[in-house]
Design a protein that fits this description.
48% helix; Methane Monooxygenase Hydroxylase, Chain G, domain 1; mainly alpha
Length: 149
Protein backbone atom coordinates (compact mmCIF):
# COMPACT_ATOMS: atom_id res chain seq x y z
CA UNK A 1 0.00 0.00 0.00
CA UNK A 2 1.30 3.44 -0.89
CA UNK A 3 2.26 5.87 1.84
CA UNK A 4 2.66 8.94 -0.32
CA UNK A 5 -0.45 11.10 -0.62
CA UNK A 6 -0.10 11.71 -4.37
CA UNK A 7 0.41 8.00 -5.04
CA UNK A 8 -2.73 7.13 -3.06
CA UNK A 9 -4.69 9.57 -5.23
CA UNK A 10 -3.08 8.17 -8.39
CA UNK A 11 -4.16 4.64 -7.38
CA UNK A 12 -7.77 5.84 -6.97
CA UNK A 13 -7.69 7.50 -10.40
CA UNK A 14 -6.22 4.41 -12.03
CA UNK A 15 -8.96 2.22 -10.58
CA UNK A 16 -11.70 4.51 -11.90
CA UNK A 17 -10.10 4.57 -15.35
CA UNK A 18 -9.63 0.80 -15.36
CA UNK A 19 -13.35 0.27 -14.72
CA UNK A 20 -14.33 2.82 -17.35
CA UNK A 21 -12.01 1.29 -19.96
CA UNK A 22 -13.23 -2.19 -19.05
CA UNK A 23 -16.84 -1.36 -20.01
CA UNK A 24 -15.79 0.21 -23.32
CA UNK A 25 -13.47 -2.67 -24.19
CA UNK A 26 -16.09 -5.23 -23.21
CA UNK A 27 -18.77 -3.57 -25.32
CA UNK A 28 -16.43 -3.56 -28.33
CA UNK A 29 -15.54 -7.23 -27.81
CA UNK A 30 -19.20 -8.22 -27.54
CA UNK A 31 -20.08 -6.29 -30.70
CA UNK A 32 -17.24 -7.97 -32.61
CA UNK A 33 -18.32 -11.38 -31.35
CA UNK A 34 -21.92 -10.73 -32.42
CA UNK A 35 -20.71 -9.57 -35.83
CA UNK A 36 -18.67 -12.74 -36.31
CA UNK A 37 -21.65 -14.95 -35.44
CA UNK A 38 -23.81 -12.93 -37.85
CA UNK A 39 -21.18 -13.37 -40.57
CA UNK A 40 -21.11 -17.11 -39.94
CA UNK A 41 -24.92 -17.31 -40.03
CA UNK A 42 -25.16 -14.82 -42.91
CA UNK A 43 -28.07 -13.06 -41.22
CA UNK A 44 -28.11 -9.29 -40.86
CA UNK A 45 -24.35 -9.35 -41.07
CA UNK A 46 -23.86 -5.90 -42.56
CA UNK A 47 -25.60 -3.99 -39.76
CA UNK A 48 -23.88 -6.00 -37.06
CA UNK A 49 -20.47 -5.40 -38.65
CA UNK A 50 -21.14 -1.68 -38.92
CA UNK A 51 -22.23 -1.58 -35.27
CA UNK A 52 -19.06 -3.45 -34.26
CA UNK A 53 -16.96 -0.94 -36.20
CA UNK A 54 -18.73 1.89 -34.42
CA UNK A 55 -18.06 0.33 -31.01
CA UNK A 56 -14.39 -0.22 -31.89
CA UNK A 57 -14.08 3.42 -32.92
CA UNK A 58 -15.65 4.56 -29.65
CA UNK A 59 -13.30 2.38 -27.60
CA UNK A 60 -10.30 3.71 -29.54
CA UNK A 61 -11.40 7.33 -29.14
CA UNK A 62 -11.80 6.91 -25.39
CA UNK A 63 -8.39 5.26 -25.08
CA UNK A 64 -9.67 1.85 -23.99
CA UNK A 65 -7.84 0.19 -26.89
CA UNK A 66 -5.09 1.37 -29.19
CA UNK A 67 -6.28 2.97 -32.44
CA UNK A 68 -4.23 0.55 -34.55
CA UNK A 69 -5.75 -2.38 -32.66
CA UNK A 70 -9.20 -1.06 -33.56
CA UNK A 71 -8.15 -0.56 -37.19
CA UNK A 72 -6.84 -4.12 -37.42
CA UNK A 73 -10.07 -5.59 -36.04
CA UNK A 74 -12.21 -3.43 -38.32
CA UNK A 75 -10.14 -4.50 -41.32
CA UNK A 76 -10.60 -8.17 -40.49
CA UNK A 77 -14.36 -7.76 -40.11
CA UNK A 78 -14.67 -5.89 -43.41
CA UNK A 79 -12.56 -8.52 -45.14
CA UNK A 80 -14.95 -11.25 -43.94
CA UNK A 81 -17.96 -9.16 -44.93
CA UNK A 82 -16.61 -8.56 -48.43
CA UNK A 83 -15.81 -12.26 -48.83
CA UNK A 84 -19.54 -12.94 -48.49
CA UNK A 85 -20.18 -10.70 -51.49
CA UNK A 86 -22.19 -8.10 -49.60
CA UNK A 87 -22.47 -4.73 -51.29
CA UNK A 88 -20.55 -1.74 -49.96
CA UNK A 89 -21.63 -0.90 -46.43
CA UNK A 90 -24.45 1.52 -45.82
CA UNK A 91 -24.26 4.26 -43.20
CA UNK A 92 -23.82 3.01 -39.65
CA UNK A 93 -27.08 1.60 -38.33
CA UNK A 94 -27.27 0.15 -34.87
CA UNK A 95 -28.97 -3.22 -34.32
CA UNK A 96 -32.42 -3.45 -32.84
CA UNK A 97 -31.24 -3.12 -29.24
CA UNK A 98 -33.35 -0.71 -27.19
CA UNK A 99 -31.45 2.46 -26.45
CA UNK A 100 -32.68 4.50 -23.53
CA UNK A 101 -32.06 8.19 -23.95
CA UNK A 102 -32.97 10.96 -21.58
CA UNK A 103 -35.56 13.35 -22.86
CA UNK A 104 -34.06 16.80 -23.12
CA UNK A 105 -36.46 19.69 -22.85
CA UNK A 106 -35.52 22.72 -24.84
CA UNK A 107 -35.85 26.06 -23.16
CA UNK A 108 -37.81 28.68 -25.08
CA UNK A 109 -35.64 31.14 -26.93
CA UNK A 110 -35.15 34.50 -25.28
CA UNK A 111 -36.83 37.41 -27.04
CA UNK A 112 -34.46 39.66 -28.94
CA UNK A 113 -33.50 42.83 -27.13
CA UNK A 114 -34.45 46.09 -28.81
CA UNK A 115 -31.54 47.96 -30.33
CA UNK A 116 -30.09 50.66 -28.10
CA UNK A 117 -30.35 54.24 -29.27
CA UNK A 118 -27.06 55.61 -30.45
CA UNK A 119 -25.37 57.90 -27.98
CA UNK A 120 -24.58 61.40 -29.07
CA UNK A 121 -20.92 61.83 -29.63
CA UNK A 122 -19.28 64.56 -27.63
CA UNK A 123 -16.95 66.91 -29.39
CA UNK A 124 -13.31 66.16 -28.76
CA UNK A 125 -11.71 68.24 -26.05
CA UNK A 126 -9.23 70.77 -27.21
CA UNK A 127 -5.86 69.99 -25.82
CA UNK A 128 -4.05 72.74 -24.01
CA UNK A 129 -0.52 73.44 -25.06
CA UNK A 130 1.80 71.75 -22.65
CA UNK A 131 4.38 73.79 -20.85
CA UNK A 132 7.83 73.25 -22.17
CA UNK A 133 10.03 71.10 -20.06
CA UNK A 134 12.81 72.82 -18.24
CA UNK A 135 16.14 71.68 -19.42
CA UNK A 136 18.56 70.96 -16.68
CA UNK A 137 22.10 71.82 -17.30
CA UNK A 138 24.72 69.44 -16.12
CA UNK A 139 26.37 70.58 -12.97
CA UNK A 140 30.09 70.19 -12.70
CA UNK A 141 31.13 67.10 -10.80
CA UNK A 142 32.01 67.63 -7.19
CA UNK A 143 35.69 67.45 -6.34
CA UNK A 144 36.68 64.33 -4.55
CA UNK A 145 38.58 64.78 -1.35
CA UNK A 146 41.91 63.14 -0.97
CA UNK A 147 41.79 59.64 0.38
CA UNK A 148 42.75 59.23 4.01
CA UNK A 149 46.08 57.70 4.73
Amino acid sequence: MANIKSQIKRNRQNEKRRLRNRTNRGAARTAVKDARTALAGKTDSQTSVMFAISMLDKAANKGAIHPRNAARRKGRLMKQLNALGVQSPAPVMEPAKPVIEKAVEKKPAKPAKPAKAEKETKPAKESKPKAEKKTTEKKPAAKKTAAKK
